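Kindly draft a sequence, keeping tokens residue-aligned:
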Amino acid sequence: MCVHHGVMDGRGLATLTKLWAFFTRQNENIPLPIDLPDPDEPFKRAIRLVTSANDTADLGSSDVETIFQHYQNDRILEDVIPPSTNARSKRSSKIFEFSVDKLEYARGLLGDTCHATMNSILSAVIWCNVTRIRLTRRPQQPPTPYSRFFQMVDGRRRLGPEIDEPGPYLGNVVLTSAADVELDVLAATGAFDHQQISLMNPIIRAIGSASTRVTKQYIGGFLEILQQVQNPSSLGIGCMSQYGIDFISSSWANLPLYECDFGSAFSQDCAAETNGKPAFVRYPYVDYADGNMIVLPRQRFPTGKGEIIEVYVMLAGDDLLALSEDTRFCSWLEEQCA
């Protein structure tokens, strides 16, 4: 199965996979796990989005340029930025296994001071360590004091259940939040210890605050832009700076792909505990991205102890090698560096 990420988001993929698994099992005595999509669903996506966001507040102007000002932080008005100054370096990618127990400890230590979530802590840990390694390996410091963290935000949760009425919405409702933090602040922390975790407080708060700005009103205003511009293809999709210091995060952690049961026909050569369910979920190998992470779907176990979160990190090859050998970064992993 192959889907274009610009057309279908993670939750759309999960819905499609759940239906695929159901029909693969070929069990006529079990009801469908969800309603079947409307055959005309692809042709109704625009009106469904607008309808689900129709109670948003009016931005107070029919002038598209004025409306654009609400979205400047997304860089949708910028021209194409030149390639990164680090564009010629070889890219690579690797999966790291983070300890859930350590992340839970950090969340308990931070308490309610920054409304920390497992994902925001994980994002901060990787962003801090990647930034520090990038800076130590650069012959010159970048001409900007900030690094920007782009996070993919699930717009479906903001729009509510209306988006899945009358049947599942299979399109893309992912938006982008952007947080700027000083390079010095990022490089000063990143290890799994009491003091370093405390220093991550403003970073985690910045990530969380940026995400909460993506509201139902925000989505409604963005849809208004799309309806008013003469050529929607002229809009950018957000972009990183040319200095090779920004970072992008996307989380598939809560996608229930491990729960999809494809039936006995796919369980003969599998471990007994997996039956017809996936033994692992992976992302295709990428050798062209520098500064991306994807939190892979979580495989949850009854005991909870020793649970890991897998994160797929894409970086310049030399930076990725340095990261995988870095003691600060590895202190968060289930199995630390040798």
